[in-house]
Amino acid sequence: MTYFIVAFNNKRQMIIEAESQTTDKDLVGIIKDYWEFKGWYVTVREEA
Q: Do residues 34 and 2 make contact, with C-beta atoms less than 8 angstroms apart?
């Protein structure tokens, strides 16, 4: 499973991490928690 992580804040969009993709689910959780704590809305898309 590959996870693509995107954060949104005040109508801006930022792709997180170099290519915004990882296969490490624990890392996805850490990144998501970090940016949500900073006030961003984070979406994670999963692809097989």
A: no
* Average pLDDT score over residue span 8-12: 76
Q: 12-27: per-residue pLDDT in tens?
A: 766 665 445 677 788 8
* d(C-alpha 40, C-alpha 28), whole Å: 15
Q: DSSP code of 17?
A: S
| Alpha-carbon distances, residue 1 vs 15, 22, 23, 25 (angstroms) | 18, 9, 6, 9
Q: How many distinct helices (H) and strands (E) make up the chain?
A: 1, 4
Task: Report the distance separating Cα 17 and Cα 22, nearest Å.
Answer: 9
